[in-house]
Task: inverse folding
């Protein structure tokens, strides 16, 4: 057995539970051990029964005096027990769990944790958590209080009488189950793992040894243990990520050669002069940075970040011109066919004056160009006519790391193409450097002049009909609207969230017969999706009801309204991106944020959408209010998996970064650190799995 042992091969788990565990992303022993509690129930205070105070969260340890199931008139079961310790007795009640009497029998010593409640003036424990303690005698009902003490061994408890870890759960896998399994396998894991972190770093950074940190995060004796554990485990996350990206960068730059592309100043000036607008300073700066990259045999690997509408395409075009002028082709990859066509059209119109041919390569249309826009099909069937010198990837987080890698490796004939990726996700610079340490960064933090702000309103429930009337009015003047709902099917765990399907049915009745609505969600086949988006683009559909799949930028200048249901569930940066789908034409545009939430912070957060219109600023606000995890939707993107590290912790990031650098400088192949090297291999495998 090692830490990569598949979970179903562990004793006592089997395929039934393995399937459930996979829903929690637990596939190996290691995954189970790295499934950390998200909080702890503090039941560490063990009281004697005579000392109980109503309202307190406590644990008691005593012997079951008597226990029985009672059937109520409505046919339900109530389990009633009397527990006795040296000081007194107390009544304990559980509802609808008649099977309890199979494990909990009179005479057994038990530990119970719960909140003390008053029944009349007598304290009672209602539905406490319980576990049977190891007993010295066998099921002996004590004859008097004095006898009780000798029956209890103060064993170390797991589910009661301590800081009890609470885990992310899934249907059929409770925290109690997970806790028991983790307690069971933690010692096994300890026996087979050695600390992969260099000793020197552990000492210099005053970190807890790995095995001890893992014990402490699951089963802390006190809260301070949790902090100690988290400090170590957070360091691991940032340190290994940094090591991987710095190694990737080194590898990328040292082992590969790219074409050195000289900038043709005349052509560039001509291109800029022919544009129907003046470049923003941010665009000028980014173009300089990229052209500078290209003018080197080291492969460029740059991320261009900019809000929707900040003008990334022109920057990409400038780079493509440089490639063309130096005799190389460019590939321009987009996540959907519609976007690929859109890019082709845009680039074609701005590059035509320079006589650069723009091709398209998708499942349905194949035409080579000096620059070829396309979808996944570029990966599989495209054969370039000349050497590909530059690969541009739009909305890169949707592609997945493995696919990105394939995109340039496939076309690396003799030379490796330079790589430019673009994203509209406004990740603050520090965070971006943590996530993409192997990339250089250019940021378009300035919008083109004269862009209208999208009037944004938070709409409480009772005003929703007013909003529908407003939409109806806009549609009468030829405009279109998006209505976004967060989920496809009604989901019990998200009972308050409107499903797109239900919403769609309901919305049909809210608008006049002439108004055509279309439904777009993630479960549709891609051909159906493209058809609906096409109909929306051509105004055959006036209202597009959709899940956030429309986040991928389709350009519908006629769409002036974005209505978002359950807006509080989204990150501000995400809301900003969604809102960026409207206001693309010359018409005044609106964003309605619907919410049932009554939480003041929630509403305040949403209201900042009305005041702030820069993605980066919104991202910073969210980063402070909610932490980075879910904000950028990156957790699902396969890029990283930080469970413990706080990405706004500047000090942690810079220390881990510096330690990673030191190691690589001293020992670039990690020869002296085989365990660390092995750890990175495992992580790399996890990261490169396509999502
Ligand atoms: P995105 O960053 O979302 O990809 P685009 O490159 O599609 O943005 O640009 C959005 C729109 O803004 C396009 O119509 C483009 O022609 C226009 N645009 C780009 N740069 C400028 C600028 N400096 N001034 C005015 N309009 C611009
Ligand atoms: Mg774009």
Result:
């Amino acid at each position: 057995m090692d830490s990569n042992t598949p979970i179903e091969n562990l004793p006592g788990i089997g395929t039934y539970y393995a399937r459930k565990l996979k829903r929690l992303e637990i596939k190996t022993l290691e995954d189970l051990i790295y499934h950390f509690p998200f909080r702890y129930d503090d039941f560490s205070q063990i009281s004697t029964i005579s000392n109980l105070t109503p309202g307190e969260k406590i644990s008691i340890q005593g012997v079951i005096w008597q226990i029985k199931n009672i059937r109520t008139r409505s046919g339900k079961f109530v389990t009633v027990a009397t527990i006795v310790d040296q000081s007194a007795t107390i009544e304990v009640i559980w509802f609808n769990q008649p099977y309890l009497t199979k494990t909990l029998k009179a005479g057994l010593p038990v530990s119970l944790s719960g909140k003390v409640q008053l029944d009349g003036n007598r304290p009672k424990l209602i539905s406490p958590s319980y576990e049977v303690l190891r007993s010295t005698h066998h099921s002996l009902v004590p004859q008097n209080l004095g006898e009780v003490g000798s029956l209890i061994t103060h064993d170390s408890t797991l589910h009661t009488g301590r800081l009890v870890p609470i885990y992310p759960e899934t249907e059929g896998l409770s925290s109690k189950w997970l806790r028991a399994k983790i307690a069971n396998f933690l010692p096994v894991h300890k026996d087979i793992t050695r600390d992969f972190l260099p000793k020197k770093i552990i000492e210099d950074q005053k970190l807890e040894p790995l095995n001890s940190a893992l014990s402490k995060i699951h089963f802390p004796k006190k809260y301070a243990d949790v902090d100690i554990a988290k400090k170590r485990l957070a360091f691991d996350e940032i340190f290994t990520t940094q090591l991987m990206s710095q190694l990737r960068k080194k590898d990328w730059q040292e082992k590969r050669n790219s074409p050195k592309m000289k900038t043709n100043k005349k052509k560039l000036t001509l291109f800029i002069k022919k544009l129907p607008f003046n470049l923003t300073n941010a665009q000028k700066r980014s173009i300089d940075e990229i052209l500078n990259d290209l003018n080197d045999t080291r492969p460029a690997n740059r991320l261009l970040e900019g809000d929707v509408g900040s003008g990334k395409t022109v920057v990409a075009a400038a780079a493509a011109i440089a490639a063309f002028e130096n005799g190389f082709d460019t590939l321009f990859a987009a996540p959907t066919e519609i976007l690929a066509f859109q890019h082709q059209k845009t680039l074609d119109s701005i590059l035509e004056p320079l006589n650069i041919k723009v091709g398209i390569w998708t499942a349905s249309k194949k035409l080579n160009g000096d620059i070829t826009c396309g979808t996944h099909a570029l990966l599989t069937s495209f054969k370039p006519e000349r050497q590909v010198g530059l690969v541009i990837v739009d909305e890169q987080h949707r592609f997945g790391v493995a696919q990105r890698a394939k995109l340039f490796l496939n076309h690396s004939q003799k030379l490796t193409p330079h790589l430019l990726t673009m994203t509209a996700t406004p990740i603050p610079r520090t965070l971006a450097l943590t996530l993409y340490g192997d990339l250089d960064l250019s940021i378009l933090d300035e919008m083109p002049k004269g862009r209208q702000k999208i009037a944004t309103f938070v709409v409480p429930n009772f005003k929703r009909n007013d909003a529908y009337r407003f939409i109806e009015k806009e549609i009468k003047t030829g405009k279109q609207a998006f209505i976004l709902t967060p989920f496809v099917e009604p989901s019990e765990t998200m009972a308050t969230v409107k499903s797109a399907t239900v919403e769609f049915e309901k919305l049909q009745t809210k608008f006049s017969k002439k108004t055509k609505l279309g439904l777009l969600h993630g479960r549709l086949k891609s051909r159906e999706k493209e058809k609906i988006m096409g109909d929306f683009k051509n105004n055959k559909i006036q209202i597009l009801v959709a899940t956030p799949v429309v986040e991928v930028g389709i350009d519908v200048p006629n769409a002036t309204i974005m209505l978002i249901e359950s807006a509080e569930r989204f990150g501000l940066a995400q809301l900003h991106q969604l809102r960026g789908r409207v206001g693309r034409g010359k018409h005044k545009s609106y964003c309605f944020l619907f919410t049932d939430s009554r939480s003041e912070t929630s509403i305040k957060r949403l209201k900042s959408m009305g005041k702030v219109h820069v993605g980066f600023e919104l991202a910073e606000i969210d980063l402070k209010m909610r932490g980075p995890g879910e904000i950028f939707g990156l957790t699902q993107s396969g890029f990283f998996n930080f469970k413990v590290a706080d990405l706004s912790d500047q000090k942690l990031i810079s220390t881990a970064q510096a330690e990673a650098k030191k190691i690589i400088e001293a020992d670039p192949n990690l020869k002296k650190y085989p365990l660390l090297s092995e750890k990175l291999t495992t992580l790399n495998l996890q990261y490169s799995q396509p999502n």
